[in-house]
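User: Here's a structure from my thesis project, written as structure tokens. My advisor, Dr. K., wants to see whether a designed sequence matches the one we expressed. Can you design one independently, without my sequence as a hint?
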């Protein structure tokens, strides 16, 4: 099967928040996107936020304190509206201005930071929601074009060298250090960009899930350009 066919069965587009949260994940479908065109200037918000932190979390009070243009004010109302929708749904959204994420330099052969393709895991039923309003956008990968790194023989051998405990503790070791959540793109795989302004719901690995979790990653930020991301 081609990647185009896989991508079609992997994702579904909707036009409203109700469908985004209510359509079930089935078969290969593990990513649903609320596709929309947003009004306003989100770059105005990004430019007005002060601080040198690599990640700055913002709340409604922070947004209201910004002296924005009329287009910036429209963008602000969208952010506040999206956060309210998610909170009313029972989620806990976090709005972040991201200059860069910390990278994992502990094991150069197997980084476990968010720039690596990975899935999310939870002990209870849940979904991941995210929306990039400004900057580089997150990417997903069809599961058939992703290979769990712990199943790649040469990587598995390196992990066994890294592990120093008893044999029956190896699998818990992989889980404890999140090695089992990370994937490698197969040859020829083309990541799917989630696009600016589109709110996505991604399937998570949890005990009651009926589908494979969605493989995704954070993009590398462009030099000097931050990302404005809502995630929960």
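Assistant: Designed independently from the structure alone:
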């Amino acid at each position: 099967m081609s990647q185009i066919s896989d991508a079609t069965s992997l994702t579904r587009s909707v036009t409203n928040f109700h469908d985004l949260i209510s359509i079930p994940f089935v078969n290969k479908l593990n990513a649903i996107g609320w596709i929309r065109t947003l009004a306003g200037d989100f770059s105005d918000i990004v430019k007005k936020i002060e601080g040198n932190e690599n990640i700055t979390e913002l709340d409604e009070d922070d947004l209201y304190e910004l002296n924005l243009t009329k287009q910036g004010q429209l963008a602000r109302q969208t952010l506040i509206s999206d956060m309210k929708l998610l909170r009313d749904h029972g989620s806990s959204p976090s709005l972040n201005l991201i200059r860069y994420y910390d990278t994992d330099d502990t094991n150069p052969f197997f980084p476990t930071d968010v720039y690596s393709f990975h899935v999310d895991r939870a002990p209870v039923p849940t979904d991941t929601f995210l929306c990039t309003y400004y900057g580089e956008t997150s990417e997903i990968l069809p599961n058939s074009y992703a290979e769990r790194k712990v199943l790649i023989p040469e990587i598995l051998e390196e992990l066994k060298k890294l592990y120093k405990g008893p044999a029956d503790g190896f699998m818990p070791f992989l889980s404890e250090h999140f090695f089992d959540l990370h994937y490698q793109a197969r040859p020829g795989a083309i990541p799917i960009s989630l696009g600016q302004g589109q709110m996505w719901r991604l399937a998570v690995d949890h005990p009651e899930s009926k589908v494979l979790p969605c493989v995704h990653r954070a993009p590398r930020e462009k030099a000097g350009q931050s990302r404005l991301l809502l995630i929960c």
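When you compare it with your expressed construct, this may help: The mean pLDDT is 92.
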